[in-house]
Amino acid sequence: MEKEIKVSDKEVDEFYEKLKKDDEKHFYFLNSDVEHTKRLLKGILMNIKRYGYGSCPCRLADGNRSADLDMICPCDYRDRDMNEYGHCYCALYVTYKNLNKKDFTPIPERRGSEKEIERLKTMKKQKIPTWRCKVCGYLCAREDAPDKCPICGADHDRFERFD
Question: Is 101 exposed, middle or buried (0-12, 13-18, 19+ CB in 10 A)?
């Protein structure tokens, strides 16, 4: 039988404040539904205690870090989900535009789906695009430019493809 893992309210509150401060500095925003957000953060903290890493609480981890790398929070799918839906899979992270939204559209699971596996195969064959913020010069390699520049806060449309 697995030992019960406990996370105190104080641990959750401290984690919440740290993430909120650090993430907002880089223009990532936690869901404004604090109860929902803290429930998810408690799950991440439990996974840190259980596995030694903070796997996303909305997906099942198997305890093998290398197998779970794509779902360590923030997961590999967060930015694509936010660009497409305005929030991540579990709605822990939301875009600024959706900061005060209460109802979120369910997002189809990308992890392990045939569509995702095919996308990854294609990505391996192709060069991942690089995006440059025209305001500050920040560079990032990903499928689409971020919603906001994590350095200067410039909007998505201020990025140009930089190949």
Answer: middle
